[in-house]
Amino acid sequence: MDRAIKTDLDGIKALAKKVAKSLKGGEIFALVGNLGAGKTSFVKALGKELKLKHKITSPTFTLMHNFEAKIPATKKKVFLYHLDLYRTKNFKEVKALGLTEIWGRPDTITIIEWADKIQKYLPAKATIIKFKNNV
Ligand SMILES: Nc1ncnc2c1ncn2[C@@H]1O[C@H](COP(=O)(O)OP(=O)(O)OP(=O)(O)O)[C@@H](O)[C@H]1O
Ligand SMILES: [Mg+2]
């Protein structure tokens, strides 16, 4: 998978399919884009690809949601962490969630909305996905 990907709303479903197929475990996806650009929609689409039973909503107030999932290619069990950092004030708050112990671990997939808020702390292996509004 490329280090940086761009998509608009129309490309979200296809991208979610591609990402789902590529998963091995340990991936970190940094979602960047304006309000309503499609970040949560992408996570929902990925959840669909992974056949998650749990309904995906934005973790706006709790900052982080955690689901169990199976990687389509290998059936390996992973924990999917979905974060929305829109309301985050600083990295300390994010660290307090335990994120730095979670991200990159082979049994986790981490997806971070508003990842630009912690851009300088993101691991080098993170894949940046840029969402562009169709306006
Ligand atoms: N339940 C829904 N029904 C119809 N359209 C929706 C629904 N939820 C979101 N949308 C639309 O889909 C688009 C993408 O929304 P989405 O929530 O994925 O954006 P986002 O990048 O996560 O935004 P935010 O920064 O607010 O979290 C927006 O145009 C939004 O209005
Ligand atoms: Mg969102």
Describe the structure.
The protein is of the alpha/beta class and 135 residues long. Helices cover 23% and strands 28% of the residues. The relative contact order is 0.28. The chain has a six-stranded mixed β-sheet with strand order 1-6-2-5-4-3, with helices on one face. The protein contains four helices and six strands, in the order E-H-E-H-E-E-H-H-E-E. It has helices at 12-22, 39-49, 91-95, 99-102, and strands at residues 4-8, 28-33, 64-70, 77-84, 108-113, 127-132. The structure holds adenosine-5'-triphosphate (ATP) and magnesium ion. Magnesium ion binds at residues 39-40, 58, 84, 113.
> Terminal Cα separation, in Å?
27 Å
The largest sheet, given as strand count, sense and whether it forms a barrel, is: 6 strands, mixed
Total count of helical runs of at least 4 residues: 4
Main sheet: strand order: 1-6-2-5-4-3
Q: What is the overall pLDDT average? A: 94
Number of DSSP E strands? 6
Instruction: Supply Rg.
Output: 14 Å
Helix content class:
10-25%
Structural class: alpha/beta
What's the SSE pattern? EHEHEEHHEE
**Unreliably modeled segments:** none
What sort of overall outline do the alpha carbons produce when their principal axes are compared?
Answer: globular
> In what range is the share of β-strand residues?
25-35%
Give a list of the ligands. adenosine-5'-triphosphate, magnesium ion
